[in-house]
Amino acid sequence: MKNILIASTSTLHNGSYLEYLLPELQLFFGGCSEIIFIPYARPSGISHDDYTQKVGEAFSKINIQVKGIHEFEDPITAIKNAKGIFTGGGNTFLLVSQLYKNNVIDTLERVVKTGTPYLGTSAGSNICGLTMHTTNDMPIVYPPSFRTLGFVSFNINPHYLDPIAGSTHMGETRETRINEFHHFNPQPVIGLREGSWLAVKGESIKLKGELTARIFKRNEIPYEVTPETELKDLK
Amino acid sequence: MKNILIASTSTLHNGSYLEYLLPELQLFFGGCSEIIFIPYARPSGISHDDYTQKVGEAFSKINIQVKGIHEFEDPITAIKNAKGIFTGGGNTFLLVSQLYKNNVIDTLERVVKTGTPYLGTSAGSNICGLTMHTTNDMPIVYPPSFRTLGFVSFNINPHYLDPIAGSTHMGETRETRINEFHHFNPQPVIGLREGSWLAVKGESIKLKGELTARIFKRNEIPYEVTPETELKDLK
């Protein structure tokens, strides 16, 4: 049975790393004394070791040990044996490239679809969708594919931003970008604002946190959904 | 001799399409009665025909006819025979995919490097750099390569945005993204603010417009350059 948290962001403004999620994570990973962390997305180019240490410090507050996937000789076996998995944010292009390069993407998909608890934040949430076509990140490396893990039957847009009233900037709004995506791709997209997450339990997918989320379907007017909305039919 | 304008944006806030550039374009394309427009980037998913019509209306003010590359049976021959070329903005992933798919990228590179006047705005400017790794766009389609035209020996970041003071949003700033790029790529990046453009004439590359631009080099502190700065040694 799938057991997945898909969070828009790791960190809220004025909060510390993972702080707002820790009460939820204590329940979610309850019973795991150690989880595996996938640091491949390397925010600001931080090293795998430094990133893993940062995550370890956050999880130590709820008495969970963290080991980086790069510390294992065989990452595939590490994923197979993991009691829980967390993929952190950073650059989605880099993350997806590394998942393919290290040949762990199929194993990761299989173990999470069959029950290993998985937490994603930001880039680690992007990859829970069908593809990474709706990431906000800069394409700093060229991945072998944009196909991702498909834990849900739609795409994720984390750090969703509403158009800024009065902005004089001429770059595209997030909504314009997702509209362009729908000219070439059929699947719905959920815009998850910072502070929101999806809780996937078996077939159920529920919006969590205090904010609404925005749903974009091809050829339809986007709309908001409220916390606790069941999203299993979004596909 | 190369003769290229690389503009951050087509349109300024409160201005009409290409309005701020028209006096410059009148000089730049002087002597061309017709140019070819490449509408592949399709902003907001606009059709090739509609996009070409919009561009034609702007260029009619300076008595230049515009024909879309999609109107020609053989786009390669069209590029070879063009008296001037304009590639408009939209989605860089889509633009680059279409340049490869229609097999025009090599011809476009060759004719512009040997003298056909070329104007790019936004996505059409991104492709003037060595690669499209520093685009701001959403990866709505998967191009066969991120390699682009290399009219200059660095990368372009159009619509450059300074960090927003007081922002509570946790997504990466533009500077953070370019810093991540430099962990994996050696070439400098120029952040071109809206209203700025580069004028390439032969070996010379000068910053134009009223604003400074921001230069990012690997392992160096970013710095500003003023209008009329010669950038031919940026590589």
Walk me through what this model shows.
Chains A, B: It holds the Pfam family Peptidase_S51. The structure is a homodimer of 235-residue chains. By secondary structure, the first copy, chain A, is an alpha/beta fold. Chain A has a single domain, classed as Class I glutamine amidotransferase (GATase) domain (Rossmann fold, 3-Layer(aba) Sandwich). In chain A, 25% of the residues lie in helices and 19% in strands. Chain A has helices at residues 22-28, 48-60, 75-81, 92-101, 105-113, 123-126, 174-182, and strands at residues 3-7, 34-38, 65-68, 85-87, 118-121, 155-157, 189-191, 197-201, 204-208, 213-216, 223-225. In chain A, the strands form two sheets. Chain A has a seven-stranded mixed sheet. A four-stranded mixed sheet of chain A has the order 6-7-10-11, with no helix packed on it. In chain A, helix 2 links the parallel strand 2 (34-38) and strand 3 (65-68). The radius of gyration of chain A is 17 Å and the shape is globular. The relative contact order of chain A is 0.16. Chain A binds chain B through residues 9, 11-14, 42-45, 90-91, 93-94, 132-142, 145-146, 159, 161, 168-172, 176-185, 194, and chain B through 9, 11-14, 42-45, 90-91, 93-94, 132-142, 145-146, 159, 161, 168-172, 176-185, 194.
Question: Which tags fit this structure?
Answer:
homodimer, 235 residues, alpha/beta, Rossmann fold, 7-stranded mixed sheet, 4-stranded mixed sheet, 7 helices, globular
